[in-house]
Amino acid sequence: MSADRVVQLRWESRRVAAGGGTALSYAGISVIRRRHGEIVDRVWVPVGEEPTFADDEALIAVLHDAWRWSRPAA
Predict the structure, then answer these.
(1) Which of 46, 41, 43, 39 is nearest to 62 (CA)?
(2) For 8, 34, 38, 73, which has the most beta carbons within 10 A of its beta carbon?
């Protein structure tokens, strides 16, 4: 990993207006890419209480892409 490119993972909830003055809250993982301390990308992946295979694969793909980005070019 390069010192100028950092990947952070953060457990976060998102609130979504559901109409009628109500809101729903969804748990998820934010994958944050920083270059020289500045955020350059943020992807939030929802994580349900009973994640499906597709949920797992989506998270793996986002993590794989972020960690490949954090490695210096060969």
Answers:
(1) 43
(2) 34
30: amino acid identity, one letter: S
At 69 the three-state DSSP class reads helix
Q: What is the pLDDT of residues 13-61, one digit of tens each?
A: 988 888 888 988 888 999 999 999 999 999 999 887 888 898 889 999 9
How far apart are the C-alpha atoms of 44 and 27, rounded to whole Å? 10
Domain of 59, in residue numbers: 5-70
Q: Where are the beta strands (DSSP E) in 1-74?
A: 5-19, 22-35, 38-46
